[in-house]
Specification:
411 residues; seven-stranded antiparallel β-sheet; alpha+beta; six-stranded antiparallel β-sheet; flat; Jelly Rolls; 5 helices; 2 domains
Length: 411
């Protein structure tokens, strides 16, 4: 019985040990082989990832070195540009300084010559004054002398008469002496020339900034009115009494004598000039491609809608138009309408300006600053812009407007 109990205890103990050594639900022991494999896999992934990061690091360092080199080159190029620009302006200043010095020296020389001549004339008259005073003193002494007899007085009459005769031969004025003065007429011509040079220089300095953004405009012959004839190069156009032959285009103007440029403006800054002096009435501006092409209502006329901006000359009046509103503009005294119109567009800023391209005078600007006048809360371009031109139909059917052309611009 005891043996059976011992055997039972051993069996129970054995059962108890088996229960104790049986793995717990979260024991890692059964997964040792799997964990080792996962660890090995993770090491490989980390090594691969590390290699990728090192490669990216080297690529980044190389790119940064390239950027630094570009930055250094950029700085070097900018410094060189600044140096060259300063040289050009220094050359202009030297030319102006040299011219100023030469003009001032000529004025000073003229002053010295005139002053020297006047000094000689003054000395001559001073000598004459001394002679006159000497004779005057002689006569005074004779008059104040002691009483003398009749015979002595008669003897003195002869020299006295001679003195009086000499005094009667007074010094005559010399007309040449009266003409000694600075050349006022020449001086006024100089001032006029300098004033014109100053205005021309100011205009050229303004123009050179615009010419940096000069754009070659080519007129689109396909969409222009059928009576507008465009030259083969697309740089000139005129109104013909007869319609051009060829098929009709859906985007062609059918009533209003308009023409557009062939290339759209969608970014950046652009400047061009149009010669209008051979045209009695005209409009030059810019328009969206959505400008209406059919009919004669305001939607197809430059400046009479929200889709276009223009400078217009008609019936002797110059004006700027947008959104069917206009501003009357003054012309140069005695000059009339501008002969050349400059158009500047800054597309990102929604800005367009019209210039008298000869005087480089701003005639009208369209931007957010003048939005209230033209009922625009914000002035930004929302579509591609095209250079736009318009002829006005002559009131006399026997006459037709002459031509406009795009000016060649070069620095």
């Amino acid at each position: 019985m005891a043996a059976e109990d011992c055997t039972a205890q051993r069996e129970g103990g054995s059962d108890g040990l088996d229960l104790v050594t049986e793995p717990y639900p979260h024991s890692p022991k059964p997964n040792r082989k799997t964990d080792s494999s996962s660890l090995q896999c993770s090491q490989e992934q980390l090594s691969c990832r590390l290699a990728e990061l090192e490669k990216e690091s080297r690529r980044t360092e190389a790119h940064m070195a390239s950027l630094k080199k570009r930055q250094a080159n950029l700085t070097m190029n900018a410094d060189e540009m600044v140096r060259q620009v300063r040289e050009r302006y220094e050359g202009l200043r030297l030319a102006l300084d040299w011219d100023e010095q030469a003009v001032l020296e000529r004025l000073e020389q003229e002053h010295r010559e005139s002053s020297s001549r006047l000094t000689r004339v003054l000395q001559d008259w001073s000598q004459h004054l001394r002679v006159v005073r000497k004779h005057s003193g002689t006569i005074t002494k004779l008059q104040e002398g002691a009483p003398m007899g009749q015979q002595q007085e008669a003897r003195l009459n002869l020299p006295l008469l001679r003195v009086v005769h000499d005094l009667n031969c007074h010094k005559k004025l010399n007309a040449d002496d009266e003409a000694i003065r600075l050349n006022e007429e020449r001086f006024q011509k100089l001032l006029k020339a300098l004033g014109k040079l100053s205005k021309d220089l100011e205009a050229q300095l303004q123009r050179k900034i615009l010419l940096l953004d000069s754009t070659e405009v080519v007129i689109d012959s396909i969409t222009s009115h059928r009576q507008i004839k465009v030259t083969s190069g697309g740089r000139s156009m005129y109104v013909s009494p007869k319609e051009c032959s060829g098929p009709h285009h859906p985007l062609q103007f059918d009533q209003v004598y308009c023409a557009l440029g062939s290339a759209a403006i969608t970014a950046g800054q652009h400047y061009w000039e149009a010669s209008v002096h051979c045209c009695p009435a005209w409009a030059v501006g810019v328009a969206y491609s959505s400008l209406h092409r059919k009919g004669r209502d305001k939607s197809a006329k430059l400046g009479r809608n929200r889709l276009s901006w223009c400078l217009e000359f008609q019936d002797g009046h110059l004006s700027a138009w947008h959104n069917d509103r206009h501003v009357a503009l003054s012309t140069r005294a005695g000059q009339g309408a501008p002969k050349k119109v400059g158009v500047f567009v800054n597309y990102p800023k929604g800005y367009v300006a019209f210039y008298d391209a000869e005087a480089m005078k701003v005639l009208q600007e369209f931007s957010g600053a003048c939005s209230a006048m033209f009922e625009r809360a914000h002035h930004q371009f929302t579509e591609p812009l095209f250079p736009a031109f318009r002829f006005f139909k002559p009131k006399d059917v026997r006459s037709v407007p002459d031509h406009m052309w795009i000016c060649e611009l070069s620095l």
